[in-house]
């Protein structure tokens, strides 16, 4: 969440930057500032009152010893009255602090200056592109028909077992899934990321720590009895490894990677764009997470983008990178770059990765700091990226590599699949 110090330093700038995310924050920011004034006034009066209590309390014993019982009784009565006032002041202060926190939790991160203005995905900026566009002709099959033709994925069986959005992978389809997971994890490890195997369910504190709560509560699957949430991405448990932690400066940067199943309700998603693997409720993804010193986080972001680019290039997919505009960014992000690959049969771009810098926004919620050489503690910056999400990668691989003989497997993936064609 935003820091109170940043809000108090320049509230007008915070409101202006929030507006670039199509978020009207003026009323909430003004309320926070007023509540902070109330909190600080209560704190000052409480400190003064406690000092008075201490002084009177020290006099009571002296008065009793000197035989001035009536004065001692008066002092006791004053102390009792002042303690009641202290309790009231503490209640006022605690109430203001709680309300400030609730407001801060519901204010998104502010976009950095690199973020383009805009209100929707139509305003996103293409910053880089590569790969060769396949020319398959008008008779090319979409991946859901290819999956049925080669018996790779059974969407109807998934509906029977669970519901729409929970496909069953079979035979070479299942092996392709496992091959991609291993391929992505091996590449991440070679790039210096430490592999983590996290839980797939988290508590509410973890959801608040990375910003999924309260913003995306309705999009997460919730286990009511235990108050656990199924993770929407491995970012949540991996980043929460560092919740309430003070790191030493020489421990940074931290680079973690993790495979997990991901669970998303995707409420309100309908239509042709969600057919097949385009949008699922359960899917597989390999995530990369970094914890950085603030001055290094944007260099780390560039490094993460370059790394994800190597993955789509090795898979021989046509790709481009989008810098998201303010109106299309997530609640927690300061800047986001999306990777999209081209789906030749559907003739559309499919998002396969988001790489984001959250600056100190998540770190402030997590209370994740580092101690520098000067012994002072400072908030870290957190970053994460998909490297990569499998469903749309599989969709593009199946569609773009279809031939009269079968579906060709990219050369880099063959050692992982054990086959070079699906026929």
TrEMBL record:
<dbReference type="GO" id="GO:0005524">
    <property type="term" value="F:ATP binding"/>
</dbReference>
<keyword id="KW-0067">ATP-binding</keyword>
<dbReference type="GO" id="GO:0005737">
    <property type="term" value="C:cytoplasm"/>
</dbReference>
<dbReference type="InterPro" id="IPR045864">
    <property type="entry name" value="aa-tRNA-synth_II/BPL/LPL"/>
</dbReference>
<keyword id="KW-0963">Cytoplasm</keyword>
<dbReference type="InterPro" id="IPR042103">
    <property type="entry name" value="SerRS_1_N_sf"/>
</dbReference>
<dbReference type="Pfam" id="PF00587">
    <property type="entry name" value="tRNA-synt_2b"/>
</dbReference>
<feature type="binding site">
    <location>
        <position position="233"/>
    </location>
    <ligand>
        <name>L-serine</name>
    </ligand>
</feature>
<feature type="domain" description="Aminoacyl-transfer RNA synthetases class-II family profile">
    <location>
        <begin position="175"/>
        <end position="415"/>
    </location>
</feature>
<dbReference type="GO" id="GO:0004828">
    <property type="term" value="F:serine-tRNA ligase activity"/>
</dbReference>
<keyword id="KW-0648">Protein biosynthesis</keyword>
<feature type="binding site">
    <location>
        <position position="384"/>
    </location>
    <ligand>
        <name>L-serine</name>
    </ligand>
</feature>
<feature type="binding site">
    <location>
        <position position="264"/>
    </location>
    <ligand>
        <name>L-serine</name>
    </ligand>
</feature>
<dbReference type="InterPro" id="IPR002317">
    <property type="entry name" value="Ser-tRNA-ligase_type_1"/>
</dbReference>
<dbReference type="InterPro" id="IPR010978">
    <property type="entry name" value="tRNA-bd_arm"/>
</dbReference>
<feature type="coiled-coil region">
    <location>
        <begin position="72"/>
        <end position="106"/>
    </location>
</feature>
<dbReference type="Pfam" id="PF02403">
    <property type="entry name" value="Seryl_tRNA_N"/>
</dbReference>
<feature type="binding site">
    <location>
        <begin position="264"/>
        <end position="266"/>
    </location>
    <ligand>
        <name>ATP</name>
    </ligand>
</feature>
<keyword id="KW-0547">Nucleotide-binding</keyword>
<feature type="binding site">
    <location>
        <position position="287"/>
    </location>
    <ligand>
        <name>L-serine</name>
    </ligand>
</feature>
<keyword id="KW-0175">Coiled coil</keyword>
<dbReference type="InterPro" id="IPR006195">
    <property type="entry name" value="aa-tRNA-synth_II"/>
</dbReference>
<comment type="similarity">
    <text>Belongs to the class-II aminoacyl-tRNA synthetase family. Type-1 seryl-tRNA synthetase subfamily.</text>
</comment>
<comment type="pathway">
    <text>Aminoacyl-tRNA biosynthesis; selenocysteinyl-tRNA(Sec) biosynthesis; L-seryl-tRNA(Sec) from L-serine and tRNA(Sec): step 1/1.</text>
</comment>
<keyword id="KW-0030">Aminoacyl-tRNA synthetase</keyword>
<dbReference type="InterPro" id="IPR015866">
    <property type="entry name" value="Ser-tRNA-synth_1_N"/>
</dbReference>
<feature type="binding site">
    <location>
        <begin position="351"/>
        <end position="354"/>
    </location>
    <ligand>
        <name>ATP</name>
    </ligand>
</feature>
<dbReference type="InterPro" id="IPR002314">
    <property type="entry name" value="aa-tRNA-synt_IIb"/>
</dbReference>
<keyword id="KW-0436">Ligase</keyword>
<protein>
    <recommendedName>
        <fullName>Serine--tRNA ligase</fullName>
        <ecNumber>6.1.1.11</ecNumber>
    </recommendedName>
</protein>
<dbReference type="GO" id="GO:0006434">
    <property type="term" value="P:seryl-tRNA aminoacylation"/>
</dbReference>
């Amino acid at each position: 969440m935003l820091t109170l110090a940043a809000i108090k330093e320049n509230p007008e700038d915070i409101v202006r930057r929030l507006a670039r995310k199509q978020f009207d924050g003026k009323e909430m920011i003004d309320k926070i500032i007023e509540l902070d004034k109330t909190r600080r006034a209560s704190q000052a009066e409480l400190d003064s009152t406690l000092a008075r209590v201490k002084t009177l309390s020290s006099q009571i014993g002296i008065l009793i010893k000197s035989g001035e019982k009536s004065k001692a009784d008066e002092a006791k009565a004053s102390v009792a009255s002042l303690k009641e006032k202290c309790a009231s002041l503490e209640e006022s202060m605690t109430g203001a602090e709680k309300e400030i926190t609730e407001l801060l939790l519901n204010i998104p991160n502010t976009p950095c200056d690199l973020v383009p203005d805009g209100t929707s995905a139509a305003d996103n900026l293409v910053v880089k592109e590569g790969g060769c566009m396949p020319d398959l002709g008008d008779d090319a099959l979409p991946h859901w028909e290819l999956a049925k033709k080669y018996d790779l994925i059974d969407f109807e069986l998934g509906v029977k077992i669970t519901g729409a959005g929970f496909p069953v992978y079979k035979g070479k389809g299942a092996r392709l899934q496992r091959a991609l997971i291993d391929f992505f994890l091996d590449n991440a490890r070679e790039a210096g990321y430490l592999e983590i195997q996290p839980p797939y369910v988290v508590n509410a504190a973890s959801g608040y720590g990375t910003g999924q709560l309260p913003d995306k509560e309705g999009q997460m699957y919730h286990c009511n009895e235990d108050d656990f949430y199924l993770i929407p991405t491995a970012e949540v448990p991996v980043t929460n490894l560092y919740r309430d932690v003070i790191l030493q400066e020489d421990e940074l940067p931290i680079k973690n990677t993790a495979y997990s199943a991901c669970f998303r309700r995707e409420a309100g998603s309908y239509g042709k764009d969600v057919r097949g693997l385009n949008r699922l409720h359960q899917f597989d993804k390999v995530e990369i997470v970094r914890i950085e010193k603030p001055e290094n986080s944007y260099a780390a972001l560039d490094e993460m983008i370059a790394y994800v680019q190597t993955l789509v290039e090795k898979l021989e997919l046509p790709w481009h990178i989008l810098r998201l505009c303010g109106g299309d960014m997530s609640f927690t992000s300061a800047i986001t770059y999306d990777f999209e690959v081209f789906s030749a049969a559907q003739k559309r771009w499919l998002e396969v990765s988001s790489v984001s810098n959250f600056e100190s926004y998540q770190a402030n919620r997590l209370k994740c700091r580092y101690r520098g050489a000067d012994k002072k503690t400072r908030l870290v910056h957190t970053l994460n990226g998909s490297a990569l999400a499998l469903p749309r990668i599989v969709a593009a691989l199946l569609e773009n590599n279809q031939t009269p003989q079968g579906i060709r497997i990219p050369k880099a993936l063959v050692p992982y699949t054990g086959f070079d064609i699906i026929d």
